[in-house]
Amino acid sequence: MTRFFVKRGGLLSDTDQRAVAEAIAAVEKNTDAELVTVLARQADTYHYIPALWAAAIALLVPGALAMTALWLTLWDVLLVQWLVFVVLILVLRLPAVMFRLIPSSIRRWRAGNLARRQFLEQNLHHTRGQTGVLIFVSEAEHYVEIIADRGINQHVSAEQWRAIVDAFTQGVRRGETLQGFLRCIESCGVLLQAHVPVTEQKNELPNHLVLID
């Protein structure tokens, strides 16, 4: 299991998705591994983050008003406090603003959770011989992770996966998302063919790129 961050880009087009599916099909001809790719726009809505920030700032409003020369009633103070809260909620929900407020540890945690859920939801844990491999990307969190089942991990080390993800990350940072995906799949194919060569022709899972928009 290896995880890294990538530069934010755009979701792949239909033509790009077909290219990814064809690359997976080519790899699976030479290995018993089952490859699934997932591309998510973001791992969570994070709506609670702007709400927490807005509430925290709004709580400071009465103290700030008390330091001014304004003569305000209790209802005036409450009205200002609510207006500040509502305005901040709207402003802080703008993606360009919101993602600056989210701690990197939370972004990694949410993206990692989604990757593990996808491993289960795509039935990668039910393959014969436990040979499922997930290539997961979440754009908003700048996150990439490769998760392999036991039948693969007993042959392939974390360092070998890390080398593949490093190369993928560099490609995405150059804006080469499709090329990065294709090179990543090809590199996984070389590794899987060497350690888990094909013993039977099968295709237990769909080859298309799974998009979470």
Secondary structure topology:
Elements: E1 2-4, H1 14-28, E2 34-40, H2 48-58, H3 61-66, H4 74-92, H5 95-101, H6 104-121, E3 132-138, E4 143-148, H7 150-153, H8 158-173, H9 177-195, E5 210-212
Parallel strand pairs: 2-3, 2-5
Antiparallel strand pairs: 1-4, 3-4
Helix pairs in contact: 1-9, 2-4, 8-9
The average pLDDT is: 87
Numbering strands along the chain, what is their spatial order in the largest sheet? 1-4-3-2-5
Low-confidence stretches: 1-9
Strand content: 5-15%
Counted beta strands: 5
Give the end-to-end Cα distance, rounded to a whole number of Å. Answer: 24 Å
Which structural category do the helix and sheet elements fall into? alpha/beta
Percentage of residues assigned to helices? 40-55%
Series of H and E elements: EHEHHHHHEEHHHE
- Biggest sheet architecture: 5 strands, mixed
Radius of gyration: 23 Å
Specify the number of helices.
9
Shape: elongated
Keywords:
213 residues, alpha/beta, five-stranded mixed β-sheet, disordered N terminus
Descriptive account of the structure:
With 213 residues, the protein is α/β, with parallel strands linked by helices. Helix content is 54%, strand content 12%. It has a five-stranded mixed sheet, with helices on both faces. A hairpin with a 4-residue loop joins strand 3 and strand 4. Helix 8 (158-173) runs antiparallel to helix 9. The model is unreliable at 1-9 (pLDDT under 50).
Short structural description:
The protein has 213 residues and is of the alpha/beta class.
